[in-house]
Design brief:
By secondary structure, the protein is mostly beta strands. Helices cover 0% and strands 48% of the residues. Strands 2, 4, 5, 6, 9, 10 and 11 form a 7-stranded mixed beta sheet that branches. The protein has a 4-stranded antiparallel beta sheet with strand order 1-3-8-7, with no helix packed on it. The radius of gyration is 14 Å and the shape is globular.
Length: 121
């Protein structure tokens, strides 16, 4: 079991940057978990943003954020980051992180509570 806490959201102007963090609760670790970021904008369904595999060597991104967002994990295996650059108004959403052990079905995923990102145009 792992508890996830997101942070780093806020209000930023278009073209600006933010770095989101997804941290495991004290005493817990994200090692052996694939971790992903999702987002949900107003009136929209939750959508995939980016993922990093447990080994840290494989990442993938939604087309809408490729070249602007970077997902990474710290060497202590406790935190996953989402660096967001060249932000656009359409990036405004609540951002959630999700952790799932490889080969387990999605019903076994852990989710954080979300952090709000608002990009003003």
């Amino acid at each position: 079991q792992v508890q996830l806490v997101e942070s780093g959201g806020g209000l930023v102007q278009a073209g600006g940057s933010l770095r989101l963090s997804c941290a495991a609760a004290s005493g817990q670790t994200l090692s052996n978990f694939n971790v992903a970021w999702y987002r949900q904008g107003p009136g929209k369904e939750r959508e995939f943003v980016a993922q990093i595999k447990w080994s840290g060597s494989s990442t993938n991104y939604a087309d809408s954020v490729k070249g602007r967002f970077t997902i990474s994990r710290d060497s202590a295996e406790r935190t996953v980051y989402l660096q967001m650059n060249i932000l656009k108004a359409e990036d405004s959403a609540i951002y959630y992180c999700k952790a799932l052990r490889p080969s387990l079905p999605d019903s076994f995923a852990y989710w954080g509570q979300g952090t709000q990102v608002t990009v003003s145009s």
